[in-house]
User: Fold this.
Amino acid sequence: MSINRVLVYCLLGCAALLYLMPLVVMVITSLKDLDEIRSGTLLSMPQALNFDAWDKAWGSACTGVSCEGLKGYFWNSVLIVVPAVVISTVIGALNGYVLTKWKFRGSNLFFGMLLIGTMIPFQVILLPMARMLGFLGLAGTTSGLIMVHIIYGLAFTTLFFRNYYISIPSELVNAARIDGAGFWLIFVRIILPLSVPILVVSVIWQFTQIWNDFLFGVVYSSGDAQPITVALNNLVNTSTGVKEYNVDMAAAIIAALPTLFVYVVAGKYFVKGLTAGAVKG
Amino acid sequence: MHALKIQNIEKTYGKVKVLKGIDLEIKPGQFLILVGPSGCGKSTLLNMIAGLEPVSNGNIFIGDRDVTHLDPKDRDIAMVFQSYALYPNMTVRQNIEFGLTIRKTEKSEQKKIVDKVSKLLQIEPLLDRKPKQLSGGQRQRVAMGRALARDPSIFLFDEPLSNLDAKLRVEMRGEIKELHQREGTTIVYVTHDQIEAMTLGDVIAVMKDGEIQQFGPPQEIYDNPRNQFIASFMGSPSMNFIPCLVEKVNGTMQITLESGNQKVKVPIKQNIKGLEAYAEKSVILGIRPEQITQQGEEKPDSAMLNCDVELIEPTGPDTLVTVRVNGVKTVCRVHPTAESKVNKLMPLLMDISKVVFFDPGTQERIY
Assistant:
């Protein structure tokens, strides 16, 4: 191993340590009790494995007036994320399929306008969307929030699928048409089986976006229907005298676990899917 | 009785006319070649026959049915694509069966068809492989198998050999021809390769700028091109075009050829009436490389010319010699044993009996 190699690995190791530090602090803090936190330093190890803070964050910490932990809100988030991710991904795939393989007059213009959707900041649509939800009778409901996430995500999922499908040769669709297959059959039998990498990209992207969303959650949902990010905020801001850092840390980790999990499981497809089509093999 | 009839087909994209009124008719069992340089509209025409692109104007008949506005699936056709377009997620067997399954052919019948087709094309050992595990030639065979399985009334081929290497291309070309002879299928085949056109076709339609320039059997097109474009496009190396002066001497037409400081007056014994109008004017003489050979037995209608050799290219069976006649480069096909040296004079024999003449302005043939 040359000296350069050693240097490179040292540098990489240091960078990794630096980036991991906050997570390490969070994990060890969540495992300490309050006395240890007060007496020790930030980096001192917990004396014993102590999951009390996790228990409390999950089941009995106070988020505002109710003291039932994050448990309920975790499932709220799941209920919001799963349909929003599935529906926005499916529609995005169909959009991409139509925009590349069944072009219509003005389809490029349509795609161009859809792209603008990727550049609209969240804050801009808050008020009009609130009016819209009120008009539809969905204000403050979970379905309303799901709808907002689907609409907002469509621009991104369509972009992903359209750019992926453009590299699938149209001759494949033509061959299937001559074989007698129609719009849906071609999509299900020919296009979807080729879409695994980009499906993974879309799911990861949408999952993290929607799971981590705070703004839409806090604006368009209320009370018991709020997502976990809003609940985490409430939990940290609700104090009864003492600041329970260990519970805050545990709650934050709980809120972040699903996205971490998704990246670990499907991360390598993410990179593969993003670069697919960029280089023609 | 016709297998395919195309009536005044037009295609316009906005203001651009890509096909300007095509008329064609072929009989059952005929092998039709659409050939032309890229951008001539041949692939568009094929896609319109397939139903993949809407027709702007005109009618298409397959057999007695007007299919102009039918879906591809209702036209009773099968197509082989340039990129083969095999379904990547399916095995070879599934690829061949796909169209049959959609058409609700019975399972036992499907098996019979797959067996027959795979035997015919010798792809039996490949049936359980995925397309990406196949070589180019194998993919080509599977693509043809998929088309054959459907037993359509017309096969459409869209430049099917252009993705193969030279050796395989010649091999597959032979196989396609053999298949056509054995099965008696009707085929429409698009290519830009004039050798493929010559070797495969029963009839050739040479296209340029959205129009059919000439339609006829390969030899007819080779020997009697209607204009200079067809003459230069068909044949490799291409026909020589030599500008020369026409004179009328004692009632016979005569042209002047000059090479290596030597002028020869050559009488034209062919009966070309149109040539009289060009007396004392310049025309384009069209002569194929194989009509200029080394000195040998003199034929009744030939001219001898001593030419300065500029380039020698041996190809094996014969040698291509480039000389200069009337100031233009002229390629001659001579026997490899014929003695020739660069910058030396070489006596060459021109067979005048088959030469053709073109108008230098319109480039149309002078009959």
Q: What stands out?
A: Chain A touches chain B through 16 residues (CB under 8 Å). Chain A has a mean pLDDT of 88.
